[in-house]
Design brief:
alpha+beta, 6-PTP_synth/QueD_sf, EC 4.1.2.50, Tetrahydropterin Synthase, Chain A, 4 helices, about 160 residues, lyase, 5-stranded mixed β-sheet, zinc
Length: about 160
């Protein structure tokens, strides 16, 4: 049985570990971050409940991959959050999606592609050495649409 141990002294760079030891590997790694937002919308040319104005608490899951940098990080989770907050969420959270998104039927299938494109563009236009692998957009806890890199580029 292992006992609880109190750390007496934190490991120090250049004493206990060298900077060139921080990068353990040079493999591609996928990191994931999720966000939620609340929004209203309705669907055009659709016969069902969703033709009426209604709302959802959406969940977005990003899968972003890249090679780790010299300290072992693909992209800081805080940077993903910054992109989300400043470039994507402002168009979505507590909005009437039919007005704030480009002209489209505001289906989860259309929205997930738009979200993928926005994140991918933000990563390409900055100093990040990573890419979007997938985006999942949950409209309900059990229903989601997904855009994957291979589908976006090859079809």
């Amino acid at each position: 049985m292992f006992g609880f141990q109190i750390v007496e002294e934190l490991q120090k760079i250049n004493k206990d570990i060298q900077k060139d030891e921080l990068q353990y590997h040079q493999k591609r790694v996928l990191v994931s971050k999720e966000f939620t937002f609340d929004a209203a919308h309705h669907l055009h040319c659709y016969e069902g409940k969703c033709k009426n104005l209604h709302g959802h608490t959406y969940k977005v899951v990003f899968g972003i991959s890249g090679y780790v940098d010299d300290i072992g990080i693909v992209i800081d989770f805080g940077d993903i959050k910054k992109i989300w907050k400043e470039q994507i969420e402002i168009h979505l959270d507590h909005r009437y999606l039919n007005e704030t998104l480009p002209k489209m039927n505001t289906t989860a299938e259309n929205m997930v592609v738009w979200i993928f494109e926005k994140m991918e563009a933000a990563l390409l236009n900055d100093t990040y050495q990573c890419r979007v692998e997938f985006v999942r957009l949950f409209e309900t806890p059990t229903s989601y649409a997904e855009a994957r890199r291979e589908w976006m580029l090859n079809e």
